[in-house]
Amino acid sequence: MSLQDHQITLAEAAKMTKRYRELPLGQIGQLLAGTKAYSFSKAAIQGVLDQTECESIRFYLAVETLLPPKFTIVVVGVDINGNDLVNGVILDRAYVCPPHCSVTNDLNT
């Protein structure tokens, strides 16, 4: 998979992170029911890290859709001052486990 397979706009990312922040705490467990992990391609993560000002990566909890509820993660680069690179590469569309899981191991059983 490539960077473009995961890349989203700032407007999309803002909408999803806001949905998460506005969720009642009781609904968070319902959104995560059965979900074990999320993964991104190397190319996508490298696309964030390769930005000139990028010093680290931040992962935001987010909700992609409310009906049906779909929890997700938004990934953004962070500069040396700890600020999000909101005008740079922003990721979502992670591979969700299940079904995209590793073989059984201590992390996923």
Task: Offer a concise description of the structure.
This protein has three helices and six strands; from the N terminus they run E-H-H-E-H-E-E-E-E. The chain has helices at 10-22, 25-32, 42-49; strands at residues 7-8, 37-39, 56-66, 69-78, 90-91, 95-97.
What order do the helices and strands come in, and which of them pair?
Blueprint: E1 7-8, H1 10-22, H2 25-32, E2 37-39, H3 42-49, E3 56-66, E4 69-78, E5 90-91, E6 95-97
Antiparallel strand pairs: 1-5, 2-6, 3-4, 4-5
Can you walk through the features of this model?
- The chain has helices at 10-22, 25-32, 42-49, and strands at residues 7-8, 37-39, 56-66, 69-78, 90-91, 95-97.
- β3 (56-66) and β4 (69-78) form a beta hairpin.
- It has a four-stranded antiparallel sheet with strand order 1-5-4-3, with helices on both faces. Strands 2-6 form a two-stranded antiparallel ribbon.
- By secondary structure, it is of the alpha+beta class.
- The chain contains three helices and six strands; from the N terminus they run βααβαββββ.
Q: What's the Cα radius of gyration?
A: 14 Å
Write down the overall mean pLDDT: 81
Q: Kindly report how far apart the N and C termini lie.
A: 26 Å
Q: Could you estimate the helical fraction of the residues in percent?
A: 25-40%
Unreliable residue stretches: none
Number of helices: 3
Shape, principal axes of CA atoms: globular
What's the story with the biggest beta sheet? 4 strands, antiparallel
Question: What structural category arises from helix and sheet content?
Answer: alpha+beta
Strand content: 25-35%
Spatial order of the strands forming the largest sheet: 1-5-4-3
State the order of secondary-structure elements, H for helix, E for strand. EHHEHEEEE
Number of strands: 6
